[in-house]
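Subject: Interface between my chains keeps coming out wrong

I've been trying for a while to get a sensible model of this assembly. When I model each chain on its own everything looks fine, but I need the whole thing in one frame so I can look at the contacts. Pasting all components below, labels as-is. Any help appreciated, I'm running out of ideas.
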Amino acid sequence: MSLLRKEHSVLPGFGLSLGFTLAYLGLIVLVPLSAAFLKTAGMSWAEFVAAVASPRVMAAYRLSFFASLAAASVNAFFGLIVAWVLVRYAFPGKRIVDALVDLPFALPTAVAGIALTAIYAKNGWLGQVLEPHGVKIAFTELGVFVALTFIGLPFVVRTLQPVLEELQPELEEAAASLGANRWQTITRVLLPELFPALLTGFALSFARALGEYGSVVFISGNMPLRTEIVPLLIITKLEQYDYRGATAIAVVMLTASFGLLLLINLIQKWSRRHHRV
Amino acid sequence: MDLTAAARPFFNMAVVVPSVLFKVRPLAGAPLRATQDPRWVRWLLTGIALGFLGFFLVLPLVAVFGEALRRGLGAYFTAVGDADALASVKLTLIAALISVPANVVFGVPAAWCIAKYSFRGKSLLITLIDLPFAVSPVISGLIYVLVFGAQGWLGPWLIEHDVKIIFAVPGIVLATTFVTFPFVARELIPLMQAQGSEEEYAAITLGANGWQTFWRVTLPNIKWGLLYGVILCNARAMGEFGAVSVVSGHIRGETNTMPLHVEILYNEYNFVGAFAVASLLALLALVTLVLKSIVEWRHAQAHAA
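Reply #2:
Try treating it as a single job with all components included. I did that and got this:
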């Protein structure tokens, strides 16, 4: 295995630990994942296109894409404010608020889904106030957006926090001593410094939203052509025993998420180079 | 190719949060410094941040408990004590009790070989370990159906030998293991890289063998990071919905985990029952957040000492 040749080390256990890691990784992750691609490779091109580009699937791509984009944008905006407040300001209960930011990671998605539905349904906590004014959230595209905002919330905050922590106060002091007012310091000095982290957080939040299932299916109502997300279509096809159709859509999604993963890595590399200069 | 500390916010909290918490801040009333915002800006931004979090985080959490207790404590405990609900709790515990240790047994050697040696292809290996995070939960379930399902690669062989994996407990365990796969390894890799190998070299020089070095030197050094990874891994294992939903046959009392049982009750309009089981999962989430904060705090203390 020349690809994995190591440099000499006195610590024992390299072969054992690497061999075990590769075997486990292969069995649990790589072989099952390759099953999806191999299954699709057995389909004809026309069959594949029919499965992944039917009007119902196209509508689902559109909804998943735009709802995830909107949710990630809202999270980028408010996440920046939340991270700023948590790092820079002092207020009572801050530790609790900080810990609570991780709630969407810790709360099972199905629980989030039914809770959001209970809040935004017609007779729900907020729904009964909003619906008389013509604002329908549950069982519409807006509901999908609300659920995706919830599950993507921690990413931007947690990506920005360490960067904000490490910002040198000298940077802002220098800007101020050179005559910049606070607004100029923020827009011309701080934001450019924070931008790579903000973009990373946005991309992570977007990627998570694209694949999300549990929190969305309860609040979206799952109406064909209107409020069906892509992961739901995979489930629907599986329930009809259309394994090929389900796998074909899965391959499209996997390609998109691996592309995003690559993009996030590139942003990281770029930001590291940017910081070294 | 690896996602760096900044890109893995949730997993590097051990390093991030304590410094946020313990930093000494300028006293109120002191003259405004260049890094400080005027009071009205501080109030406004704090208000916006708390409003946003209250709206999107606190309200759903309160809703879970509010809906669960809607018909009173009696109805709540009846719902929680229901035989199918208890069976789902049991299955969730079984799935977590197998998949979390499995990923610890994977994560420690993976972190050991990545952090302690340099070899070509390392960053590719780290990216591959990260893959399950990039895969939609639904697809995580689907790929196991393609391997073990009746139509899958091993399907005919499994049927012949009367082994049931899909729509049975082994499938649930496998899907859970897949979605929680990176947690422990991702937590340990940066930690062990930062710690370096000097202490291990010293142990080997003094005549310890590999196992002694690992048990007496490495393990005590990584115990907080390991515990942290286990806490996160366990929370995800118990709460996973999409992946498990695909491989479970949704058989009441047999292949329903807690999140799946919540879905079934909810779709039957048994809202008190659904929210009662959901409240147990929400409690688990809160306990996870508290334990996580405690571990972060202990970790920071260990570092300061």
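Reply #3:
Confirming on my end. The mean pLDDT of chain A is 90.
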